Structures are given as structure tokens and as C-alpha cells.
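FAQ: What does a ligand-bound record look like?

Like this one, built around flavin-adenine dinucleotide:
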Amino acid sequence: ASDPVAGLTAHDQAKKLPKGVVLDKDGKPCRSCTSFAAWRAMTRDRAKQDGGGSGASPEASRSRMVADADHSGPSSNCPPDVETLGRGTWTLLHSIAATYPEAPSKSQQSDLLSFVKLFSRLYPCWVCAEDFQSYLGREVPRVQSRDEFGNWLCGAHNEVNRKLGKPQFDCSRWQERWRTGWRD
Ligand code: FAD
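The answer part, i.e. the structure of the complex:
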């Protein structure tokens, strides 16, 4: 999709953007930091303002707006929003915990620690990454065993849940959710 607010200063963009749209450090909207709903509101506003988009024919503009309105969530072949990216990432991280050894070697412990630190610097949603880095500063990752790491990660995920107003997950059940399946 084209940049919906191209040509505006960061300040103007921030004033014009719907709630929930997060700007990147270059002042452009950050797709991987923004929910699909907020992104859609932004593209709709822009389509209304310019009659449907920069250079697009009225028919193309109309069909794009209708397509936007018809979608209830992000399409699976579009760039991920903050939620799709987060869900996929938590699946990867908890699955790494689930397959981490019960008694890891020193080199496995060091690999996991390096991975978590590098991950926190490379995560595509920069606001998420910055908060995760501060969490790492407060709560050093525990990598001495599978259960220690799984519980640490569960605590880290719960911290994000708290920030977003989501329910806390019962960390005593992390292995059921991510490794063994639920007990009946
Ligand atoms: P998710 O939170 O993605 O969870 C997926 C599944 O994990 C749940 O269905 C549940 O079965 C299980 N689960 C939930 N909590 C736990 C837990 N504590 N331990 C084990 N399993 C659990 N989004 C933002 O809007 N702002 C942010 O700042 C932000 N920071 C993030 C930082 C990181 C490092 C990551 C990976 C994601 C971040 N996200 C952020 C995305 C956010 O956490 C969610 O992934 C997203 O909102 C989708 O949520 P969801 O309700 O589908 O479930």
C-alpha cells in the first residue's frame, strides 16, 4: 500500500492520525507498531481527504475504500500489523522455551541469552522493542533450565498483557499451553 500520509511533517502527521497509529522514528506510520483497525482508520481518513488516494482513478479509489471497509482483519498476504506480528512471535518464543533442554549446556545457555538480547534489539515494532529491552534490564532472562526460561518468558509476556489490559496467564500452566497440551 502507498504511504497514506506522505509529504506531511511528522508533527502534521501526528495531528492528523487516528488514535492508535504509532509513528516510526522517521515520522512515517509504523505498520508493525499499529493495529490493523487503527491502520484501516488512517487509510480511510486519507481516502476521504483526497477522494481516494494519490493519483488513483475514482473507480479504483472507491473499490479500495469498499475493500477496506469489507475486511474485518488483516489479510494473510499483507504486511503484519502489531497483533499478527506479536502472536507469531510469541508462538516462536514460547516454542523455543518448550524445546529448550531441561539441563542445557553452558553454550546453549549463552546462545539463548544472546538470542533474547539480539531479538530485543531487532524486533520490528520499535515501541514494543524498547519496552522489552527495559524489561530485560529489570528482569534478567533465566536460562538455566527449560522450566526457568519458560516461566521467565511467561512473566515477560504477562508484562505486555498488563500493559495492553489483557488477562494475566497462569504461568504454572505454560508447559500445557506450549509443550504437552492441556490436561483434561
Ligand atoms: P498474544 O498476547 O499474542 O498471545 C498468544 C497466545 O499466547 C495467547 O492466545 C495465549 O494462549 C498465550 N499466552 C498469553 N499470555 C501468555 C503468557 N504470559 N505466557 C504464555 N502464554 C501466554 N503489542 C502492542 O500493542 N504494544 C506493545 O508494546 C507490544 N509489545 C510486544 C512485545 C513483544 C516482545 C511481543 C512479542 C509482542 C508485543 N506486542 C505488543 C504484541 C502483543 O503482545 C500481542 O501479541 C498482540 O496484541 C496479539 O494478542 P493476542 O491477544 O492475540 O495474544
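Follow-up question: can I read anything off the structure? Yes, for example: The pocket of flavin-adenine dinucleotide is lined by residues 82-83, 86-87, 89-90, 94, 123, 127-128, 131-132, 154, 157-158, 160-161, 164, 166, 169, 174, 177 (CB under 6 Å).
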